[in-house]
Amino acid sequence: MEFLRVSKIDLPFGGDNLFGFPLTFYEMFSNEFRVQQTSAFNFPNFLIDLAIVIVLGIGTERAATAILRKLRKK
């Protein structure tokens, strides 16, 4: 599953850099035979990744708050 890759960093040796989880939102391509590097930014994938992080963060904060409230009542 290529779209579930967290990151791939191969650029120093003419490879590609890929960032994003669960969707790849930034890709930097390089070829050791070319001097020019190209990159691509996928804004919709970035927004989906950002939304997932926000939802997980809010859920974790609420769960931690609920656990702390229960511990304080004991």
Task: Describe this structure as you would to a colleague.
42% of the residues lie in helices and 20% in strands. It has one helix at residues 43-73, and strands at 7-9, 16-19, 26-29, 38-41. The chain has a four-stranded antiparallel sheet with strand order 1-2-3-4, with no helix packed on it. A hairpin with a 6-residue loop joins strand 2 and strand 3. The N and C termini lie far apart (46 Å). The relative contact order is 0.13. The mean pLDDT is 77.
Rounded Rg:
19 Å
Count of discrete alpha- or pi-helical segments spanning 4 or more residues: 1
Structural class estimated from helices and strands: alpha+beta
Strand content: 15-25%
Q: pLDDT below 50 for ≥5 consecutive residues: which ranges?
A: none
Number of separate strands: 4
Secondary-structure element string: EEEEH
Q: Give the helix level as a range of percent.
A: 40-55%
Main sheet, how many strands, which sense, barrel? 4 strands, antiparallel
Cα separation of the termini: 46 Å
Overall form:
rod-shaped
| Structural domain count | 1
Average pLDDT, all residues: 77
Trace the largest sheet across and list its strands: 1-2-3-4
